[in-house]
């Protein structure tokens, strides 16, 4: 029996509650879905390799394929799914995966399916052991490897699979699903709230639904302010103030104001850096000053990513703008 959304209970995260269960319900990458549908209809499904950013439909696509390939009573016996929470070293490849691939299910025809989610976390030894299994048991098994970074999959496995890249979703693809969830959950949301969700998601459907659920649980209305507050991300007004302080205040006051903003709103400096980077591209600065400033911003971001002190890097950010200011005549206020 197929379990509908309403029957699945209210305790599930919305990401799982509204996960598409059939290929027709998927909202994006229609060219990939049509190709896979043709493979399935012709009974010529190859080994698959799905790669791309998180939240773009890779896992949902292969799970929907599995439900189309096998009746619900056969899913457990015909499909093996391993993800990042499972040990997938060479021992698992030579043991559990090899046993599943080498045995046939009595009275069931066709091939089995092994789904290796986040396959880029597998060791090189495990991948090398896997390539022989892929080749040897093709008549009995099909593999689907899912990863974020194609470069972490060895070339020998890439050559044995048909690769599909799942790019970030655009707003036109995300919005219908977002509005469906909003209607089902009776969420009070504004247009600026939807726009904020789109901007923060970066094409990640999972992130959209997670932020929506968090904001809807914490606040009566989901709007721009509540969305940004919920995820601890600086708002547009915050970034406008930060850039204004950096370009117009002296070193000590600019440093003090930004530090106080971080403390009051719980903002991470790396999030401020990302937003400031986007903002400075919209300011009319001489090319030489802009180039020097962007190089310094990238250096600060790199240092923050490896765990350096935010206080020191904040001073470095203010200093970078102070040096850029010395080369140009700036207006007294930034709109």
UniProtKB/TrEMBL annotation:
It comes from Rhynocoris fuscipes. This is Activator 1 subunit 5. The keyword Protease does not apply. GO terms for biological process: DNA repair; DNA-templated DNA replication. Residues 44-172 form the AAA+ ATPase domain. One of its GO terms (molecular function) is DNA clamp loader activity. It comes from the Eukaryota. Coiled coil: none annotated. Keywords: ATP-binding, DNA replication, Nucleotide-binding, Nucleus. It holds the Pfam family AAA. It is found in: Nucleus.
